[in-house]
Amino acid sequence: MKQEQVNELLYQALETELGGVQIYTTALKCAVNDDLKEEWEKYREETQTHVEIMQETIEAFGLNPDTETPGRGVVRHIGESLVKAMEMALQAGEPAAAQLVAAECVTLAETKDHLNWELIGEVAKKTKGEAGKALKEAHEEVEQQEDEHLYHTTGWTRELWIESLGMPAVLPPPEEVKEVETAIGAARAKSARGDML
Ligand SMILES: [Fe+2]
């Protein structure tokens, strides 16, 4: 493995989680639906824990969690941009529209987060010693939550959009009702949505 790029992945993963906390804090200002608010409150708390887990993991690699890299700067920029996008929507003063923007922003952020943890899982398999142990433990603790964050929010985004179009929507979305935790499960839940209306 290319250790320098492994380190880069770890720094980007930490930065993604840091941005995630800010994104959920702003998304919660946009949320109107009570079930969605409850869901995002939980995800924000979990994301805060992920920040701590990533800081500890980076230290287990003998690295400094505050190290800057150009790639990390890009991740921060995207996170700040998503926060700005939600603030724009809030200022426009249409709550339902702002909620939609927030759902899209969370989905975008969680797509990167999910990718990071998928890659961390791959790296964990190939990393030996204390660092490998730390990585495996972190992955075990976090991965299922990341699946939920991405698949459930994707479902919320789709159903809120469908509702906004004036069509019957499944709220909370099938992904949440069926407690989806895999890509296959998400595809199944989505294809069954017609029966849940
Ligand atoms: Fe996360």
Which labels suit this protein?
197 residues, mainly alpha, 7 helices, 0% strand, binds fe (ii) ion
Can you walk me through this structure?
The chain has helices at about 5-30, 35-60, 70-90, 95-125, 130-165, 175, 185-190. The chain has about 200 residues and is mainly α. About 80% of the residues lie in helices and about 0% in strands. The chain starts with a helix and ends in a 6-residue tail after the last helix. The protein is globular and about 55 Å long. The structure holds fe (ii) ion (FE2).
Please give the count of helices.
7
Roughly what fraction of the amino acids lie in strands? Answer: under 5%
Total strands: 0
Radius of gyration: 18 Å
Low-confidence stretches: none
Q: What percentage of residues falls in helices of 4 or more residues? A: over 70%
By secondary-structure content and strand pairing, the structural class works out as mainly alpha
Topology at a glance:
Layout (H helix, E strand, L loop, with lengths): L2 H28 L3 H27 L9 H23 L2 H32 L2 H36 L9 H4 L5 H9 L6
Helix pairs in contact: 1-2, 1-3, 1-4, 2-5, 3-4, 4-5
Fe (ii) ion binds next to α1 and α2.
Quickly describe the structure.
By secondary structure, the chain is mainly alpha-helical.
